Amino acid sequence: MMYIPTLLTPFLLLLLSPLASAIDILLPLYLYPGDSATAWSPIFQTISTHPTTTFQIVINPNSGPGTPSLLTDANLITGLSTLNAYPNVRTLGYVLTDYGHRPNATVTADVDIYASWSASPNGADIHLDGIYFDEVSNDKSQPNYNRMASFSRHAHESIRGATVVFNPGYRALEPLFASCDLMVEFEHPLADYEAEGVLAQIPPAFAGTSAVQILETPAVGTDVAGLVAAMEQAGLGAFFFGTDCCYKVWEGGLLEAMADAAA
Questions:
Q1: What is the Cα 52 distance to its own chain's centre?
Q2: Would you list the DSSP string of 202-254?
Q3: pTM of this structure
Q4: From the first residue on, what is the mean pLDDT of each consecutive set of 10 residues in the chain (263 residues)?
Q5: Which residues have C-beta within 8 Å of that of residue 28, sequence separation ≥ 6?
Q6: In terms of DSSP H, where are the helices of the chain?
Q7: Are 29 and 42 in contact (CB under 8 A)?
C-alpha cells in the first residue's frame, strides 16, 4: 500500500470532495440583431465583462437558418462575427425537429446550411460551433433514438468539433443522452420550476450534461444568485432565465445577474 503523508491527507481529501462546478449560460438568441447589431449590444457587454463564463449562444434567424441568402444580411453578419470574436462564446445553429414529424432530409439540410457559414463575402467570421436541435421527441422507441443519433452524427461530420444540444423541453429519456453533449431537461416558467423541484428529478449521473431554460422570470425580485448556486451545487451543465415565453424580450439587468451568478 502506498504511504500518504499525514500532513497531505486533508489537502487530498479537499481535492477529492464534491465541489460546485462551473456552469455555462445557454442563451437562445432569437432576437433580430437590428441595425449594426445594436439590439445585441447588452449581450456583447455582458460577455465582455464576464470572460471566465462560457456562453453557448443559439442563433435562430428564421426558425432555423432560412435560406443561404440570409448570409447577405449585414446586421446578422455583424452580430455573428462579433460573437465569434469572444473566446468565451460558442455559437450554435437552431434546427427544428418538430418532435420527429419533420422529414429527416429537411433537418439535415438545415445543418448543412449552418455548416456552410464559415466566412461572409466580406471575410467576416460567421462560423458556428454546433447545432441546437429543438422540439426533440421523447418517444420511447429505438427508431427515435436512431433518428436523433443520426442527426447528431451529421452535425459532427459537418461541423468540426461540434457541440450538439437536444431540447425535448422536459425530462429526457436516458438513451438520448448518448447522442448529445447537452440536454435541455426543462423549458417552462419559473413558477413551475420551483413547484416541481426540477433539480431533484435530474439523475446526478446526467447533471453535467443537463440544462434548464427557465421562462417568465421576473426581472426584479428573482433570487438569481441563489437559484444558480443550487444549480452549480447539483452539477448542472448550463442554464438560462428568460423574462417572456419565447426569448423575444430582453432585460439587460437579468442577463447581467445570470452572468454574475455563473462567474
A1: 16
A2: S-HHHHTTEEEEEES--SSS--HHHHHHHHHHTT--EEEE-SSSSS----HHH
A3: 0.91
A4: 36 38 92 95 96 97 82 90 98 98 97 89 91 97 97 97 97 96 98 97 97 96 97 98 90 92 94
A5: 58, 60, 94, 132, 213, 240, 242, 247
A6: 9-16, 41-49, 74-84, 104-115, 142-158, 190-196, 198-201, 204-207, 224-233, 252-262
A7: no
